[in-house]
Specification:
- With 123 residues, the protein is mainly beta.
- The protein has a single domain, classed as Sandwich (Jelly Rolls), CATH 2.60.120.
- It is 0% helix and 48% strand.
- The protein has no helices and 11 strands.
- The strands form 3 sheets. Strands 3, 5, 8, 9 and 11 form a 5-stranded antiparallel β-sheet that branches. A 4-stranded antiparallel β-sheet has the order 4-10-6-7, with no helix packed on it.
- Strand 6 and strand 7 form a beta hairpin.
- The radius of gyration is 14 Å and the shape is globular.
Amino acid sequence: MISTTYAPNRIFEFVKDGTVPVESIWRNLAAASVNQLVIAGTAGKRIRVVGMMCQSFTAAGNLVLLNGSAGATKFDFNPPLDAPFLMPLHVLGYFELSTGSPLHATVNTNTVNFLIEYIVYTP
């Protein structure tokens, strides 16, 4: 867990929780891992991805992050081989899920390692 905290405000959005902690999770998903749960959803809360690092070690992979089980695609990327792709920690975040939805991942080709930094807040 990263100890940094910040107020996750966006334009036209009021975050009721004020300052929330940034959490992180590291996953290694094998090729053909379909619809794997990455972050569990919480009723009445949203997950906002605020940073990420991903990499493939054997050959170029494909990582798809989903809004819930078999839900809408939120991120679709082909991580480079032996060179990490980095989306640095950003106060506004890169994308968020629907209220109560968990984050799922699918790896279509080769094994992918990834670290996701996120916040959970009340919309």
